[in-house]
Amino acid sequence: MKKLLLLLSFFLSIIFIASSQSLRKLHNKAILADTHNDILSSAVLDGIDISNRVKEGHSDLVRWKEGGLDVQFFSVWTGEKARNKEGFYKDAEQEIDALSILVLKNPDRITLARDYKEVKKGIRQDKLVALIGVEGGHMIEDDMDKLQALYNQGMRYMTLTWNNSTSWATSAKDETSFSFEGQGETKRKGLTSFGKQVVKRMNELGIIVDLSHVGEQTFYDAIATVTKPVMLSHSSVWSICPVFRNVKDEQIKAVAKNGGVICINFYSGFIDSNFAKKMDELEGTKGKQIKDSLQQYYDAAKMNEIWRQRFSAELEPFRPTLAQMVDHIDHIVKLVGDDYVGIGSDYDGVSSLPKGLEDVTTYPKITEELLRRGYSKKSVYKILGGNVMRVMKANFR
Fold first, then answer.
1. Where are the domains of the chain?
2. What is the pLDDT, as a whole number, of residue 2?
């Protein structure tokens, strides 16, 4: 009996190894494209060299390779207040320069692409293909010449807004906020005439119009204006997790009709509404009560340290799973088909990730979960990167 059990264990091990090798082969054969990563803002600007494996954060060149990533849109981001005294446009240039330095230091491992042929060439050369996505139209500072200048520096998508609105487009955060509603007619929702000119010029230049972060009215105004497929670079499904940053079923149908792609965001609060509710609770009255109680016993520095630990511990049980993230992919596929969904992780831009998706080495687990659910190889190839490649080809000159 003991020998029989050992023999059975041996054969099961062989089957497991063969299955793992088959999965990895399929994963590596696919073109894997991630349309949103914030490593430039979170690490590179701070002087962290991601050429080698780093302990902090979610990404570096070593781990991207391990995860089988082929194409990465690097997010160029700045918030509502500029970092540089010269303004938002200077912030964008600073991040683009940081990416250029990374590429120059690692010419055999990463290449910056500016058109579809360069993307394909980089993939054939087994390099990580870097593209630039500017996250927020405020970085053009209401200036068409700066839109052109960012294009010249490599920008290949622009998110029309971040959480802050521009003078020409309203964000999802603002469109859903009480304070915005209270402004009445003084600030209309959606795209202004100048905003529509920006969208048209983006199409002419070959810049993908990115509709993550934008309000519903801006979304539909843009859909009515574009002549090429749009992208939502890092958004998830509202009907599963109804938060302001996710997209509703009618929006998903509109993207499918346009021929665009929705790339699922991995942030826990956009995947599971239970996590989002707990986060709101901790950032609201309950969190304040806990902080106030700590303040009685500790100085500010110690109190903040203990609060961070307590905050993480309170949220941990509410973290969603990888399978719950794939539920968002499933929803889009069941609603409109497998041609309109992709991956937009938001690695190094989020504070919490689903269990099983802790960093960029975990991409193969998505492939495994899709296959487990019965997706065909053809569908897996589309979801991992084929749909994004199609949208790039349709937009780039």
1. 29-272+321-395, 274-319
2. 55
Contact between residue 113 and residue 129 where contact means Cβ atoms under 8 Å apart: yes
Inter-CA distances, 81 with 63, 98, 142, 176, 339, Å: 32, 20, 16, 21, 37
Helix%, strand%, coil% for the chain, nearest 5: 55, 10, 35
CA-derived radius of gyration, the chain = 22
The CATH number, out of the four listed (3.20.20.140, 1.10.760.10, 3.30.70.270, 3.30.70.20), of the domain defined by the range 29-272+321-395: 3.20.20.140
Residue 94 near residue 47, CB atoms below 8 Å:
no
Rounding to the nearest 10 degrees, give the CA dihedral for residues 311, 76, 115, 68.
-30
Find the helix packing angle between 249-258 and 216-225, rounded to 10°: 20
- How many residues in total does the chain contain? 397
pLDDT for 278: 87
What is this structure's pTM?
0.90
**DSSP secondary structure of 150-184:** HHHTTEEEEES-SSS--SS--BHHHHT-HHHHTTG
Q: What tens digit of pLDDT does each residue of 328-343 get?
A: 999 999 999 999 999 9
